[in-house]
Amino acid sequence: xxxxxxxxxxxxxxxxxxxxxxxxxxxxxxxxxxxxxxxxxxxxxxxxxxxxxxxxxxxxxxxxxxxxxxxxxxxxxxxxxxxxxxxxxxxxxxxxxxxxxxxxxxxxxxxxxxxxxxxxxxxxxxxxxxxxxxxxxxxxxxxxxxxxxxxxxxxxxxxxxxxxxxxxxxxxxxxxxxxxxxxxxxxxxxxxxxxxx
Length: 197
Prior knowledge:
The protein is an alpha+beta fold. The protein has one domain (2-147). The protein has five helices and ten strands. Strands 2-1-5-6 form a four-stranded antiparallel β-sheet, with no helix packed on it. A four-stranded antiparallel β-sheet has the order 3-10-7-4, with no helix packed on it. Strand 1 (2-7) and strand 2 form a beta hairpin. The longest helix is centred in the last third of the chain and has 14 residues, at 178-191. The protein is extended, with a radius of gyration of 35 Å. Residues 115-124 have low confidence and may be disordered.
C-alpha cells in the first residue's frame, strides 16, 4: 500500500521503505515524523485495506517517517532586468530541504508497529567491508580468486573490436576547381577549330 500525502503545499507518493525529499521541516535528524495530511490510500495486491480517496483527506490515515538528513537543493540563478533603464540584479537561491525515509503507511484504524509491508519492500543491504572481514578466510580467498579469474574488459579494445565489423567508408572524391577545368575546355576548342568550321 502507498499513500499520497501533502507536505508543505506539495503532494508526494509515500511508499514504505522509500525516501522522499520535502521542504525543510523543523525536526532533528533521526527523529520520527508523522504525516497526517493523507490525500489518498492506494491498495496493492495482498493488502488488507481497500483504496480510499479523501475529500480532501482520508480520515484516520497517516504516514510515519524518519528524518534522515537536512540538505540544500541545486543553485538557481534569479536575474532581474529592465530594458533601457540600466537595471540588472542577479541573485542566487538554494532551497532548504529535508530527506525523509517512509517507515509505515497506516490506514484508518491501523496501529503503528503492526504487521506492515516495510519488510517486504526493503531490499537486502550489500555486504560492507567489515562484514567481509567477519567471513572466514576461506570465503575471502574464494572471492579474491574469483575476481582474479575474471577477464578484464578494456572499453577501448571493446570499441576497436566492434569497429572492425563495420565497413570502412570510401574517401570523398575531390571536385576539381574551376581554374583546372577551364584550360581543358579551351584546349578542346583549339583542337577542333573553335567555332566548328
